[in-house]
Design brief:
mainly alpha
């Protein structure tokens, strides 16, 4: 191979290698950006889920407090009716448990 052609082939090889490196670098940058975006989305989702969980917990506490107040009032005002309702609930739960 003549020196000029050898030099030309080397230049073409270097140019091709640099193009491959540039393309790989660009693709790696894009992949990194996609991963960062996915992580941000996952973090936002987790934060939203945690907030919804806290709100649901507070609402359950409020409902439990209301139920406790209603049961206490019912026991004080109508003890026999409350006992009958408790017996019915126990019967239904027992029947469901057995099946």
């Amino acid at each position: 191979m003549q020196p000029a052609k050898h030099h030309e082939a080397t230049d073409l090889s270097l140019a091709a290698a640099n193009a491959v490196i540039d393309t790989a670098s660009d693709l790696a940058g894009r992949a990194g950006a996609k991963i960062d975006s996915a992580l941000d989305t996952a973090n936002d989702f987790a934060a939203g889920a945690a907030q919804k969980g806290r709100i649901a917990g507070q609402q359950i506490e409020a409902v439990a407090g209301n139920i406790k107040g209603a049961v206490d009032k019912s026991v004080a005002e109508q003890p026999m009716a409350t006992l009958a309702v408790a017996a019915m609930v126990g019967f239904v739960v027992g029947a469901l448990w057995k099946s």
